[in-house]
Design goal:
Length: 451
């Protein structure tokens, strides 16, 4: 996240503002944390755009993906599924932020409110937009299948937010476990994931696998504490962790029968990501060790003004970029269809289709930049505005509301069979939860908290 500074996005151009913030960065800041946050989200965005395979087949629009069409692309998910890396970065950042809050005597509610506002501010216009599109499209007679599919695809990125918000809510507790038990606290979460997978896959308790949303993602987040405490310091240690994660990943896939893809493949019975499996935790260890082996030269490179200012610029609206990137893609498909199916007649996976991907990604990026120009200020305001100063109950209640509503929208979209044609309660839960966090009844001036 960009360092605190008096400059605001409205005071100058985006690049000039980023340079001003970059120059004001405290000397002790670990810039590699911010770079990896931006890098991981960039890879996720490009991966989603590359994986999508919309096409018009016999006059009908289909929204498929390359993981199903070309199974060899499932190997690419070992590189493009970098959401565990984002959680590792979050663990490091939350450790720094919570330790700072404890030293300053800031209460849990104040700390949590500041962290959550930065996450959920861009969610509000996204949910409102798709709720409005769904309702209007229903009244205009658009097919329910199209409304449901389009909104469901666009809202898929919000699943991550539901998980990460609860990880942040629990961060002071998991950080206490780290302070109390050290590296043993990570291995406890690791063994919990092992036990859940074993019971789910081999013990006749498949429903128990959903518990690994806690063990796996808290374990990946805990790797950020491992990093912050120096357990991965230096290339030798980092690469040892990475090699161990890669060896475990190979063993799980090729000996234990885990799926090859690190993302959910439509039509396949078992997924490594929904619910998460031990393989996803192994992938996080592999990626974490690999990138941390490069930390020293990367931090020297980020001392330069240009790379660091670019990192600050991206991080300033990182959640807007992430949450809106699939909506940009869905809108591009809609525009292409309105223009007679331009670009949608290519056979997914063919040579011409692959050659067209740079133009496809570029068009998605242009639309995404438009959404970021419209809605990025909400996120920037959440970062540079007043301290939330929330009561703990209000921050937690807001988080629970958000996380109760998001899964329904991410799995099924906004459409439902009713007079108005949209799922009212999940949308209201998300908006109410976000309003508790973003628009508290009382705010007070103060420095923005966190790393």
């Amino acid at each position: 996240m960009p360092p605190d500074a008096p400059a605001r996005p409205s005071d100058a151009g985006a690049w000039a503002t980023a340079q001003a913030l970059a120059r004001a960065t405290p000397p002790g800041r670990n810039r590699y944390v911010d770079f990896l946050r931006a890098f991981s989200i960039f890879v996720v965005v490009v991966g989603h755009w590359l994986m999508a395979a919309p096409a018009i087949d016999r006059g009908e629009l289909t929204l498929s993906d390359m993981l199903s069409i070309a199974p060899w692309t499932q190997w690419l998910t070992w590189a493009f599924q970098v959401m565990p890396l984002f959680f590792i970065v979050g663990g490091y950042s939350n450790a720094v932020s919570w330790e700072s809050a404890r030293r300053a005597g800031r209460p849990y509610g104040q700390w949590l409110g500041a962290r959550l506002r930065r996450l959920v501010a861009p969610l509000i216009p996204l949910v409102m937009l798709w709720g409005g599109i769904g309702a209007i499209a229903h009244q205009l007679g658009v097919s329910p299948e199209l409304i449901q599919l389009g909104s469901q695809v666009a809202l898929i990125p919000t699943w991550f937010l539901a998980v990460y918000v609860m990880v942040v809510v629990a961060a002071p507790g998991t950080h206490w476990l780290w302070r109390r038990y050290g590296i043993a606290s990570f291995w406890g979460l690791f063994l919990g994931a092992v036990a859940v997978d074993f019971a789910g896959f081999f013990g006749g308790l498949p429903w128990l696998r959903w518990v690994n949303y806690a063990f796996v993602w808290l374990g990946v987040h805990h790797l950020g504490y491992v990093w912050h405490a120096g357990w991965m310091a230096g290339p030798r240690r980092a690469l040892t962790w990475s090699a161990g994660g890669l060896a475990l990943l190979f063993g799980l896939v090729f000996a234990a029968g885990y799926p090859l893809a690190m993302l959910t493949v439509p039509g396949e019975e078992v997924s490594n990501s929904r619910p998460p499996t031990l393989a996803l935790l192994a992938l996080g260890i592999f990626h974490g060790g690999l990138v941390l082996a490069l930390e020293a030269p990367a931090r020297r490179w980020l001392e330069g003004l240009r790379p660091w200012a670019a990192t600050v610029l991206v991080n300033g609206t990182i959640m807007t970029l992430y949450l809106w990137h699939v909506t940009a893609m869905v809108m591009l498909v809609a525009i292409a269809q309105l223009l007679g199916g331009v670009g949608l007649g290519l056979e997914p996976g063919g040579a011409t289709w692959w050659l067209s991907r740079p133009a496809w990604i570029g068009a998605c990026a242009v639309l995404l930049l438009g959404f970021m120009a419209m809605f990025g200020r909400l996120e920037a305001g959440a970062r540079t505005g007043t301290d939330a100063g929330l009561p703990a109950w209000q921050a937690v209640a807001g988080a629970v509301g958000i996380c109760a509503g998001i899964p329904t929208l991410a799995i099924g979209g906004v459409w439902t069979a009713s007079e108005i044609g949209i799922r009212v309660w999940p949308i209201l839960l998300v908006l109410l939860g976000a309003s508790l966090v973003v628009a508290p009844p009382a705010q007070r001036r103060g420095p923005a908290a966190g790393a």
